[in-house]
Amino acid sequence: MKQKLTIKILIKEAYLFCIEQSKFQHKELFGVTDGKAVGTLIEQKFQKHLNDKYNVKIGSSASGIDLPSENILTDIKVTSIKQPQSSCPFKDAKQKVFGLGYNLLVFVYDKTDNPKTKTATLNFVSCSFVSKERTADYTTTFRLREMVKDKANETDIIAYLQDKNIPADEITLSKLAEQILKTPPEQGYLTISNALQWRLQYQRIVTLTDTVKGITKIVSFHKPQ
User: Fold this and answer.
1) Cβ-based neighbours of 190, under 8 Å, separated by 6 or more
2) Cα(68)–Cα(47) distance, rounded to whole angstroms?
């Protein structure tokens, strides 16, 4: 009987996976410059790594989240240190203010090709677990929290959201402003750009040195042994 996966175990296994994969030579990734192809391969490898050892539900592309179990609810993101970013489905404008609604496990690699062996090595320089409460946009939440503290009213909040081109109509913005005043958002740590899909940037997470509740730095600028 396999042990049930928990967040604590997920974080431990992500660490072990980074150490193991940073030493691995990938023949199939030699010369590959497509970040999506690299990301897909590593996501599948990590899912298999978990599935071999634990009782875990693996998501489908339809569910949109890699580990959709209620107690885990985590999407896996794999990105290059050259530009640590990825896209994610746009559900509604609230995600930029109140977070994506699920946790993120972010693997950041530095890829090196070896022409002699015709293999590629992915050195995982950073890996972080970001709880759903911290997945909103940094600047937007920082400013909104300040505005609430400074006794801004609904009109002020709506004006700010419009100024930031939050993709929503007036009725939605009004409801959003009401919610912000009632329950101010937590400070987010992603940079979320508006697009047909959200564009998530992780530079702030990668370089974070402060201790922040809800963000676990699993690997930080790990150098190969």
Assistant:
1) 130, 134, 135, 136, 137, 138, 200, 201, 202, 204, 205
2) 12
Q: Domains plus CATH for the chain?
A: 3-84+101-133+201-220 (3.40.210), 139-182 (no CATH)
Region class of 172: left (phi > 0), else alpha (psi between -120 and 50), else beta = alpha
β-pairing verdict for 191-193 and 103-114: unpaired
- Nearest-5° Cα angle at 152, 147 to 156: 95
Residue of 121, 104, 140 lying closest to 218 (CA atoms): 104
Helix axes 170-182, 154-163, angle to 10 degrees: 120
CA–CA distance, 209 with 198 (Å, rounded to integer) = 26
What pTM value is reported for the model? 0.93
Q: What is the pLDDT of residues 128-164, one digit of tens each?
A: 999 999 999 999 999 999 999 999 999 999 999 999 9
Q: Please check whether residue 167 is in contact with residue 198, taking contact to mean a CB–CB distance below 8 angstroms.
A: no
